[in-house]
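Practice problem 4.
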């Protein structure tokens, strides 16, 4: 086996996107779960966006001269997030996934990132074992929820579109809840026009980069996150991720017609603080 790792380029988007779709689809089909990506085209578009973004590190694995898989590291904020990592189903179980993981872990170490995080599908025991064996610690069970947003306001919690002037307050809030900010992601959401904030008693008490699988939200309280969910017109991608131990939030979502389609594990290396508030992670953490 002649395995070579190299940096990803824009020309890799189509093949890496195909592999990304087929890898996740085969795994989901084998366990009877919904696909992560609705089509090959969406997967290619996602991978193309990551390859073009300067805030993402990419690595492509070539086996005997052909692309066999890829991995990414979200470097937009101090704590970095892994994924999506995918290996062509035709060449799985040959150690390629482990090699791709070790590569991004070395990258994080070289950048002196204080922590690394990833999300892992609960039904895939082999990937859980891989990440645990590489040193990742289990932190949280997350429920992926789908459905129509409740379109329900929360008394005293006003939601509005975020502006550039909100960025410092969003970063301060995230630091108070998680110990680190995610300013790079918030800045991207501001450019896209998807970021929203919650105000309570005249203060910014919550924000969301979007209500989607690749977005995150932070609030001082569960009521702040409820307000953000209730204000969404729709959920992007596979849905939103709700920490299962936040029973008040999870039960409110279920009571408003949302349904659990998947359980995931949040796993970390390095810096991790128990959240001092409410939050929704993204698929990257």
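Answer key:
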């Amino acid at each position: 086996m002649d395995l070579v790792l190299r940096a990803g380029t824009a020309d890799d988007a189509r093949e890496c996107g195909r592999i990304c779709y087929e890898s996740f689809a085969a795994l989901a089909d084998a366990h009877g779960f919904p696909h992560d990506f609705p089509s090959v085209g969406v997967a290619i578009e996602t991978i193309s966006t990551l390859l073009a973004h300067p805030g993402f590190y990419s690595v492509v694995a070539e086996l005997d001269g052909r692309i066999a898989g890829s991995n990414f590291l979200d470097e937009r904020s101090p704590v970095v997030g892994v994924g999506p990592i995918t290996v062509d189903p035709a060449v799985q179980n040959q150690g390629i996934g482990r090699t791709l993981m070790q590569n991004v872990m070395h990258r994080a170490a070289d950048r002196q990132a204080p922590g690394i995080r990833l999300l892992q599908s609960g039904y895939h025991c082999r990937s859980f074992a891989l990440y645990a064996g590489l040193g990742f610690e289990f932190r949280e069970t997350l429920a992926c929820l789908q459905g129509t947003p409740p379109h329900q306001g929360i008394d005293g919690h006003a939601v509005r579109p975020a502006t550039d002037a909100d960025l410092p307050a969003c970063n301060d809030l995230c630091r108070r809840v998680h110990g680190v900010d995610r300013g790079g992601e918030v800045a991207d959401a501001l450019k896209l026009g998807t970021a929203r904030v919650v105000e309570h008693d005249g203060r910014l008490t919550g924000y969301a980069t979007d209500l989607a699988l690749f977005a995150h939200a932070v609030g001082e309280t569960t009521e702040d996150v409820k307000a953000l969910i209730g204000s969404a017109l729709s959920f992007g991608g596979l849905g939103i991720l709700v920490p299962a131990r936040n029973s008040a939030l999870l039960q409110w979502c279920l009571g408003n017609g949302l349904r659990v389609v998947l359980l995931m594990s949040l796993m970390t290396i390095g810096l991790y603080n128990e959240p001092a508030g409410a939050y929704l992670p993204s698929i990257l953490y």
